[in-house]
Specification:
The structure is a homodimer. Chain A is of the alpha/beta class. Chain A is 46% helix and 15% strand. The A-B interface holds A 26, 28, 45, 47-48, 52, 267, 270-271, 273-277, 307, 311-312, 314, 316-317 and B 26, 28, 45, 47-48, 52, 267, 270-271, 273-277, 307, 311-312, 314, 316-317.
Chain lengths: 318, 318
C-alpha cells in the first residue's frame, strides 16, 4: 500500500483534524434487516452527518489542512451536490470564504442550503467547460484553493474516517461495503479497512446504469463515464484517477445493482431503520438485498452515505 | 403523588423488567433545529424503538408482569395500530399467544406487521361494540388477559421508561414535551419527570382538531372525545380515566397545535434529523415551531413517539 496516493496515517491524522467539526455518526443494526439480508449488517449513518452526508469529512480535512496564508484566500469548487454544502460549512468553520460554482439550473433547495451555510455562489451555464472556466477565473482573481469533490488526497483521507469509526466500533466485520461515484469514499474506506483488518472483504457497489467504475476495475484500465441515468444522483460522476489506482489495488469485489433494487433497498431502510437515506446510500444495501453478495451469516458493515433527498417526490412514487 | 394510580417506583421496576426486550433509543440534537425552535431541544427517538414506537415499552411491562399461570392463557387487545404490534412482539418474547382483534377494514400493512410478529388476528366489524364483544368472547374462551392500550397502570409505567432514559442522559432539561392520545405516554412521562426533577415543566401537546384531553384538563372534568379528524392518526383516541387523573395532578401546561403545524414540523424533522417520524411524533415539535411554548433559550426534551407511516403518501403531498 506504500505506493498509493493516500496512507492509513493520513486517515488517522484526518480523524484528529476534523473531530471538532463533524459528528461521530451512529451505527445501527436491525434484527429484521439481518433476517432479510442474510447476515448481520451494521449501518454507519452518514445521513446523520453534518450537512446530511459523509462529504463533511473530506471537506473539513482539506480546508483544515491549509496553512493560514493559504486558507485566508478562500476555497473554491464546482458542485451542486453535497460537496458544495460540505465545503461551505468547512470554510465557515475555518472563517474563510467558500466560492461555489453552480449551474444556473441547480435545484433551488441546494442553492439555499449552500447560501445558508455561508457559501458564495457563482452561477454559470450548465456545461463542464463553463464551470471549469468559472472556477479558474475565481482562482486567478482571489488565489482561492480548489478543493476537488473526490480526486484529492486530503478529501479521500477525510472520507476514510467513516470506515475508521465503523471498524473501531465493529471490529468483527467480515465485509465492508460502500457505493462508488467519484471514488473518494470507496478509496478512503478501502485504505482504512485494509489497514485495520487485513482479512476484511472490501466490496464496492455501483448502479448498473452508472457502472463506469466497475468497467474500469474489471478492465484494469480507466474508462471514461458516459452520461449515466440512475436514481442514485450522487453516483453519476466518473471515477477519479486516484480512486482508480486505490480501488485497483485494494478491492476484493465489485458488484452492480438494478434501479429497482436501489428503490426497494431505499424503501426498506426507511421502513425498518426509520431513517431518511438518499438513493446513493441504498446501493450497497441493494447488493445484499439482491444477493449480489451472499453474506452466509457473516457480519457486514455498510456506509449509508447521505440523506439529502427531495421529500416532495420519492423514488417509489410514480 | 402517592394517590396516583402509578408511582415512580413502578416505572423504575418497569425499566428493569423490559430492558432485555426493548431498545435504549438514541437522543438526537441538531444545531439547526435549535436555531429554528428557539432553544436546545433533545429528541428521544422512540421511532427507532422495536416495532417503531414507544408502545413496545408498555406492552412488554404488562406481559412480563403476568404470573406464569396468567401468561400461559395468552393476552388479548383490540387495536389496529402500534399497540397491536407491540403486544404481539411482547407475547412472542414471552412465548405466549397474543389475540389481536382488528376491524375487517384495517390497513393491510398493519395486519401483515402483526402477523409477522406472531399475533393471532381476529377480524371483527369496524364498530366499538363489535370489537369489544370479540375481545370478551376471546377472554371467555381462552382466559387471556386484556392489555388495554393506555388505560392500564402497567402500560403507563412501561411508557414512562422513555422519559426516565431521556432524563438520565439529559438531566439539564427545563421542559419535557410529549403528545397525548389515550394518555399512556404522557402519564408515564409526567410521573417519571416530576419524580426525577421536581422543577421541570411538563407540557402536554395535542392536535387542536383532536383536543379532548386538553378540554378535560382545562375543565378539570373528563370530557368524552368526539370523532376527531387529524393527520396525527395515533392521537385520535380519547383520554383514559387513569390518564385524566395523572395529567390533572402533574401537568404544568397543555398546548394544542394546527394540522399545518404538525405537517411542517414532521417535514422539518425528516429534513434536518434525517429520521422517519409519524405525524403524532410531530405534535410536540409543532408546539415549539408555532411558538405555542416559547423556550427562550432553555433546554427541552421531546419524545418522538413513533415512525410507522405510509411511505406511499406523505402528509405534505397533496
Amino acid at each position: 500500500m506504500s505506493d498509493l496516493p493516500v496512507s492509513f496515517a493520513d486517515i488517522q491524522a484526518a480523524a484528529v483534524r476534523i473531530a471538532p467539526y463533524v459528528h461521530r455518526t451512529p451505527v445501527l443494526e436491525s434484527r429484521r434487516l439481518n433476517e432479510i439480508l442474510g447476515g448481520r449488517v451494521a449501518f454507519k449513518c452518514e445521513n446523520q452527518q453534518r450537512i446530511g452526508a459523509f462529504k463533511a469529512r473530506g471537506a473539513h480535512n482539506a480546508v483544515f489542512s491549509l496553512s493560514d496564508a493559504e486558507a485566508a484566500k478562500g476555497v473554491v469548487t464546482h458542485s451542486s451536490g453535497n460537496h458544495a454544502a460540505a465545503l461551505a460549512l468547512a470554510a465557515s468553520n475555518r472563517g474563510v470564504a467558500a466560492h461555489i460554482v453552480m449551474p444556473r439550473n441547480a435545484p433551488k433547495a441546494k442553492v439555499e442550503s449552500v447560501r445558508r451555510l455561508g457559501g458564495q455562489i457563482v452561477f454559470c451555464e450548465p456545461t463542464i467547460a463553463a464551470r471549469e472556466s468559472a472556477c479558474e477565473a475565481i482562482m486567478a482573481e482571489t488565489g482561492a484553493v480548489l478543493v476537488h469533490p473526490y480526486d484529492d488526497a486530503l478529501v479521500i483521507a477525510g472520507q476514510g474516517t467513516a470506515a475508521l469509526e465503523l471498524l473501531e466500533e465493529r471490529p468483527e466485520l467480515d465485509f465492508i461495503l460502500a457505493p462508488v461515484g467519484g471514488g473518494g469514499l470507496m478509496s478512503g474506506t478501502s485504505i482504512a479497512a485494509r489497514a485495520i483488518k487485513p482479512s476484511i472483504r472490501i466490496v464496492a457497489t455501483e448502479p448498473a446504469q452508472a457502472n463506469d467504475a466497475w468497467r474500469s476495475w474489471t478492465a484494469k484500465a480507466w474508462t471514461a463515464g458516459d452520461a449515466p441515468n440512475t436514481i442514485a444522483d450522487g453516483l453519476r460522476t466518473t471515477l477519479g484517477q486516484r480512486g482508480f489506482v486505490i480501488l485497483n489495488a485494494l478491492l476484493d469485489d465489485f458488484v452492480t445493482v438494478s434501479e429497482d433494487g436501489i428503490r426497494d433497498a431505499m424503501r426498506l431502510v426507511w421502513e425498518v431503520l426509520k431513517i431518511v437515506i438518499e438513493p446513493s446510500s441504498a446501493v450497497p444495501v441493494a447488493a445484499l438485498l439482491e444477493r449480489k453478495l451472499d453474506l452466509q451469516g457473516a457480519a457486514a458493515g455498510v456506509i449509508l452515505t447521505g440523506g439529502n433527498v427531495d421529500l416532495d417526490r420519492l423514488p417509489w412514487q410514480a
